[in-house]
Amino acid sequence: MGKKKMTPEQEQYKKLEQKHELKRPVLKNCLKAFLVGGTICLIGQAVSYFYMYFFHFTEQTAGNPTVATMIFFSMLLTGFGVYDHIGQFAGAGSAVPITGFGNSVISAAIEHRTEGFVLGVGGNMFKLAGSVILFGVFSAFAVALIKTLLIMWGVL
Amino acid sequence: MIQSVNPEPAAVRRNSGKDHELAEKIKKEVQAVPAIYDVAVIKGKREVLVAYKVKHMQRFHMKRIEKEIKEKLEKKYPKETFIVSSDFKIFIEVLELKKRMKDKDYSEKDSEERLQKIIQFKKELT
Amino acid sequence: MLKGKQSWVFHNSPVIEASAAAGGPFEAKGKVAKDFDILHDDLWMGQDSYEKAHTLLLEEAISTAVKKAGLTRQDMQFMLAGDLINQITPSSFAARTLGIPYFGLFGACSTSMEGLALASFIINYGGARKVVTGASSHNAAVEKQFRYPTEYGGQKPPTAQWTVTGAGAAVLTDCKEKQGKLVTKSATIGKVIDMGLSDPFNMGGAMAPAAADTIVAHFKDLQVEPSYYDLIVTGDLGKIGQSATVELLQKEGLEMDTKSFKDCGLMIYQDDQPVQSGGSGAGCSATVLYGHLLNEMKKGKYKRILVVATGALLSPLSFQQKESIPCIAHAVSIEVHP
């Protein structure tokens, strides 16, 4: 495990291979990610205003139903087989917003439907999203702990 | 959402000139803060509700601005209780309340009840 | 007969009596769609799981090939097949249905040529009179195992390759009348080569040294020139792997002409299909060879070809444990018997 030492022969080949390798078009990808990610957020903002105008939600509380609605949209798009194409086009633009999280859960659930509900869907649903939840909760805990300590010591 | 509506300040007690005057003064006071635009003020029986919109690039300092406005107002009018909010929902609710108050049949009691409901919005966070 | 270090020469020229290819919807839009015997317009193929659809593909390819040879399943003595799924269940399940004595093979995407080489060897030495060999892969089933769920919106880098949904099978016999028929002449079994690359989204680059090694070994063992073949075709190197192989061969003193050095992964799909660097998978070389290329040979376009199928011998576990990708390549030469 871990990084193994490469033999000179392997190093040499690596150099040769890299000449032929197709590079990711980073700048183009960033631009696409920005546009698609921005569009998703714009839709989210519209949904959030919808909840403010027509329901009793404030800017603070509209977040929860907005997130649920966006995940619902991403569920439909995933189920109809559109989201993976958006993902190939937009990269991080569609992966970073909450819809990407929804997509990772839903796609895994669809994928493992053939293994049954308990061991298939239940067991594999968080195959990709599980680490997001774990590390998300953990880092939130760590940051909150630091803040609490700083306040206790009177730094903040 | 983005454009200014600039609503007239209002008071729940329709015939109290003092309340109207106070609301007017508070509105001018708050409008002078550079980071914000569009201020709506409603003077209730006990509280004064101040809703405003923050300029887009200043939204990062929303919490600080709210604190500053509140402190400023409380210092100037120590007798009043202020509810200060930049929440857009509260702003649209204030406009709605003002619309209803224009109707002569809408009683002061109803207005006050509705104002209390808006104040509730400020308190609930999740 | 062993010739040189790692090659076999088949003096009795086993005959490829018939071959067949089955494919999925994506292949139906590809460049060589007309050479498929069976094309499905749905990835599920009427089955309730992708793995069952995978099994069905191989069953169909084998039974079509057997039928085209004018034989029945009972005439077949052995079946050699393999795929990419855990414990090669689709091939084993197909063997269960077909009821032919069975060798399960695993050589990743090189399985097609591993099977053809072994089948030729068995026929050549009288181990059997009629053998069927095949290889298959199913895009969704393989992606599920090796990568992310099918509908997951992850971005694939331009080095990635698209797993072919398809199965190819060939029936080999020891038929005595060989004139004008396709026969296998020789095979070179490759070494496992690991150049330390560990990116599972760049298999072509990892497999190129294995392909080059086997091609060099083949010409050295058989003492022929590359010009002996009308066409040298690799399995699924894709754009990157192919150009890297050409450069590696150049260093060994073998000049490859772009017209006579092709890659199945680049032949199967249209240029505008979103497959990044080309096709891959055990079914890639199997369908292109047993469908398109053998048809072309029958039409007389090629007289002698050398097929080099390359395989990346990784598992989802091994690359997550940061192991590099060991690769292999097997070559079989097919000729029109004079």
Automatic annotation (TrEMBL), chain A:
NCBIfam families: spore_V_AC
InterPro entries linked to this entry: Spore_V_AC, SpoVA
Domain of life, source organism: Bacteria
Keyword list, A-Z: Membrane, Transmembrane, Transmembrane helix
Organism (species): Mesobacillus campisalis
Transmembrane segments: 33-54, 66-83, 132-155
Pfam families linked to this entry: SpoVAC_SpoVAEB
Name of the protein: Stage V sporulation protein AC
TrEMBL record, chain C:
Pfam families linked to this entry: SpoVAD
GO molecular function, one term: acyltransferase activity
Gene3D superfamilies: Stage V sporulation protein AD (3.40.47.40)
Protein name: SpoVAD
Gene source species: Mesobacillus campisalis
